[in-house]
Amino acid sequence: MSASIILGIESSCDDTSAAIISGSKILSNIAANQAIHNEYGGVVPELASRAHQQNIIPVVEKAFSKANIQQNEICAIGFTRGPGLLGSLLVGTSFAKSLAMSLNVPLIEVNHLQAHILAHFIDDANPMPPTFPFLCLTVSGGHTMIVLVKDYFEMEIIGKTIDDAAGEAFDKIGKIFDLDYPAGPIIDKLAKEGNPDAFQFNKPRMENYDYSFSGIKTSVLYFIQKEVRKNPDFIKENLNDLCASVQRSIIEILMNKLEKASLDLNIKDVAIAGGVSANSALRKAMEINQEKLGWNIFIPKFEYTTDNAAMIAIVAKLKYERGEFTDIRTTATAKYDL
Ligand code: KG4
Ligand code: ZN
């Protein structure tokens, strides 16, 4: 039997992406980022959905041509139904529905958060995929949670943020430092030349496996306001140290709870997923725990960290095998539990 060829479409936030998967192998994974939001310091929903409208056809066409696949060769279409920005989700959802109708192939809805986690099952994501049950720290601009993954579609959130997501903390603190949006990757880069112990910021004291990131943001804000009153060039003169210190604090907060969960549940297969899993200090911390705590670690390739359609395609493939299809009358949903 030849491998199933599936088109995946992602449009939940500000990346329009399309991917073609054959079996578990990604043949193409195309994304168009929306630079329009940089000048606003965050994603503007109206502008995002309009940019998706402009990008979706060229992105899908490119995914087909890069994969060297004709439209009539695909056997299903997977799309992100939620969670995310409704106006953005509607573009991908409507497009997927129309194309599925015109090609007469089944439609498969995908939960964006499950997709971040299940990206670990893409052919070239890991030398060996994780074994169930495993823990997955899912860290993005919209979500921060520790997920107990019992099976492909049996996931339990055992801890989550009560306020800002980790990526949001990077982005908001970056804004205080006058960095462009999204600031996460910029902070990561600047931190490489900085001293992570230069400054100390407040750490939250949270029960169980939950997180909070609004405290560190406020702590940075007050500290900067105080220092800038004394020296207007304080940020400029200390930018690398500030970024390194902020990054160290955020990664320490993330890792402390993940270590606690691994210890309490006695699970040593530990994965990270989502945009913040691109962070070099988080990746390093995982590698240290592989040595120190004997973890089997699963770190996604860069192209599978931030929003991408390859992860949507792998979930669609897993559902296709299970015969789990979606009614064509479906609608996008901003909230969508794991
Ligand atoms: O998963 P993602 O692309 O979109 C959401 O579903 O939210 O994650 C985007 C988030 C942004 O907050 C961005 O700043 C953060 O991931 N991010 C990073 C890095 N690369 C992306 N944060 C820290 N270090 C990075 N290298
Ligand atoms: Zn995401």
TrEMBL record:
Name assigned to this protein: tRNA N6-adenosine threonylcarbamoyltransferase
Q: Name one GO molecular function term.
A: tRNA N(6)-L-threonylcarbamoyladenine synthase activity
Q: State the EC number(s).
A: 2.3.1.234
Gene behind this protein: tsaD
Q: What does this protein do?
A: Required for the formation of a threonylcarbamoyl group on adenosine at position 37 (t(6)A37) in tRNAs that read codons beginning with adenine. Is involved in the transfer of the threonylcarbamoyl moiety of threonylcarbamoyl-AMP (TC-AMP) to the N6 group of A37, together with TsaE and TsaB. TsaD likely plays a direct catalytic role in this reaction.
Keywords, A to Z, come to:
Acyltransferase, Cytoplasm, Iron, Metal-binding, Transferase, tRNA processing
Q: Please write the reaction equations for the catalytic activity of this protein.
A: L-threonylcarbamoyladenylate + adenosine(37) in tRNA = N(6)-L-threonylcarbamoyladenosine(37) in tRNA + AMP + H(+)
Pfam families tied to this protein:
TsaD
Q: Where is the Gcp-like domain?
A: 25-313
Mind telling me which CDD domains this protein's record contains? ASKHA_NBD_TsaD_bac (cd24133)
What residues does Fe cation bind to? Answer: 112, 116, 307
State where the protein is found.
Cytoplasm
